[in-house]
Model the fold of this input.
Amino acid sequence: MMRMDSENDGLPQPRTLPSAPPPPLVAPVEPVPALSFRDVSHRYRSHPALDRLTVEILRGQTVALLGPNGAGKSTAIALVLGLISAQEGSVEVLGTDPREAVRQGRVGAMLQTGAGSGLPPNVRVATVLRLVQRLYPSPTPLDETVRSAGIGHLLDRQTDRLSGGQAQLVRFAVAIAGNPELLVLDEPTAAMDVAGQRAFWAMIRQFAQEGRTTVFATHHLREADEIADRVVVVNHGHVVADGPGSSIKAKIAGRRIRFSCSMPDAVLLDSLEGVTDVDLQGTHVWLNSLDSDATVRDLVRHAVQFEDLEVVGPDLQDAYVALTERRPSIERSSTS
Ligand SMILES: Nc1ncnc2c1ncn2[C@@H]1O[C@H](COP(=O)(O)OP(=O)(O)OP(=O)(O)O)[C@@H](O)[C@H]1O
Ligand SMILES: [Mg+2]
Done:
């Protein structure tokens, strides 16, 4: 523990004039935003897709945009790429307007594909990559792109004869071919098998180690947790949670207790020791608890007639559901 000098001997200390602190050896580096959304709202006709979305992503960060179907992830990505313009609020990419950042060749992207590979048909993969390279002012050397994306074996293949997972890798190669500062990926591992996903995650980590910024949309909680240093959970067009995967899990710290009960009393259940959240669906009861042993003891003490009781640990899936679904529940303000 730190001690005050004047407490040392009880004697008055000689007064010294404050001297200027020595200059820092290295100038402090200000974190620079790679992209920022300020109060961005966007509607498709009358349908709201983004609702006052506010988020800032710093250069060098790898960030997952995690959210269920229709949360607004692809709309946010379309704004970053300047494919649509914000109807309200502002979006800035690499310190400038999104279209300008893209025009300068500083942004690489992999969009969410519907049907097909999203690549031009009847062309060799190598040809596509050479074409893309020519579009950028300072592209990555072709062999480096090929190595980074692990697609050496696919260069002579026709784009329309690739498997779903192979097409994703080629699309990744297209995204990084221009040597971008910011990489934006919309559900990049859709259609990849587990081995493909792991290899892909390794590529993203490599990309991040080079000091670049990556933002990717995903539904895959494990993916967000494993690759990203920050997870931004989006639902109904705005941010509902933001932090490392571990902090998202911590939002529902503790355990989940479930059981059946013919006449559950929500108020009593909410008052049990350790309980932070009560969720009733007919006779099915879910309790979130910070101390499941104490809660179960309290259930017994109050003679709650439970059946089929189970205690389960939390995972990111639980956190995700808790953060994005509005089920009828009683929430204590202290847990928000
Ligand atoms: N072109 C469009 N026209 C009309 N509505 C749209 C359009 N694109 C998206 N939407 C609607 O806007 C909302 C947000 O869609 P968005 O595609 O951004 O979500 P998402 O999070 O990417 O979903 P998913 O995980 O399914 O890809 C959805 O309700 C969707 O139906
Ligand atoms: Mg989408």
